[in-house]
Amino acid sequence: MLRWRLIGAAAIIIPVVTLCWLDFSWNFGRPGIWLLPLAVAIAIAASEEVLWLLRAKQLRPAGWACHVGTLLVLGTAGLSIWWPFDTTAFSTDPSKWILFALAAGMVVSLISEMRRYEKPGWAIVHVGLTIFTIAYVGGLMSFVIRLRLVHSELPDGNAWGMIALLSMIVATKTSDAGAYFTGRLFGRTKLAPNLSPGKTVEGAIGGLVAAVFGAWIVFAVVAPQLTTSEPPAFWRLCLYAVCVAIAGMIGDLAESLFKRDMESKDSSTWLIGLGGVLDVLDSMLLAAPMALFFWEIGLVGPR
């Protein structure tokens, strides 16, 4: 099992690292130009996996509305990346445009259910599940895109956006790995036995320590290669990494909750040793908003 996990992880890491390098070095003045299509593809795949879980229980959210709503939200979050005209009006407060996109996704969900309505009893459930899928995948994934664009107004905004994105991904995934290996070696106390019997308190503590190490690698080793600014104070780095890792753990348990409720072990099986896209993405969906919060309030970032 571990062997296949490592193979699956390598199959993901190599192309993602390549795209990050391209997105930093060859972005034609538009940071995110390479990573936005990847984010959209991942989000659509994750949405489809949510739909698959729901349909297995005879629930029927509108698939096309989920995908359209997700595309609207992600396209709006990355508007400054792909829009060929002046984006000053959009970049002043991108959050309001994302809210408009979420509202548009809600309208699409309602129209979809109106078109296929047949008998009472299920319309509210289906609309609610469609909107939930848009918000859970599209809404939370939009924070990942906004991380890549953080501080884009600065002369070295390209560097800071990449550092912000990498710090979140590395802290989250080193936390996942640290929790897994620490739990296997020392795990005794169950963290959430009804949701994920394999997760332990000892593993979670190991994950937090690993997250701090991962964040330190990004800020102390990678960041100086991209910008001349000083790394954040160690206590800031620790607070950032721990909060991001905790949010990631909640995201992981949230997906476990959904799978338990739908009586499914994995969101899908096409990623060798790792399950589905949602199984890889789950922790980052909640870690990204936490990370962006720290960057927006200035606890980490340019000094």
From TrEMBL:
GO terms assigned for molecular function: phosphatidate cytidylyltransferase activity
Classification via Pfam families: CTP_transf_1
UniProt keyword annotation of Cell membrane present: yes
EC number: 2.7.7.41
Keyword annotations: Cell membrane, Lipid biosynthesis, Lipid metabolism, Membrane, Nucleotidyltransferase, Phospholipid biosynthesis, Phospholipid metabolism, Transferase, Transmembrane, Transmembrane helix
GO cellular component entries: plasma membrane
Compartment list: Cell membrane
GO biological-process terms attached to the record: CDP-diacylglycerol biosynthetic process
Membrane topology: Multi-pass membrane protein
Transmembrane segments annotated in the record for this chain: 7-26, 32-52, 64-85, 97-114, 121-147, 159-182, 203-222, 234-258, 270-295
Pathway assignment: Phospholipid metabolism; CDP-diacylglycerol biosynthesis; CDP-diacylglycerol from sn-glycerol 3-phosphate: step 3/3; Lipid metabolism
Superkingdom as given in the UniProt entry: Bacteria
Top-level EC class as recorded in UniProt: transferase
Reactions performed catalytically: a 1,2-diacyl-sn-glycero-3-phosphate + CTP + H(+) = a CDP-1,2-diacyl-sn-glycerol + diphosphate
Similarity section: Belongs to the CDS family.
Name of the protein in its database record: Phosphatidate cytidylyltransferase
Species of origin: Blastopirellula marina
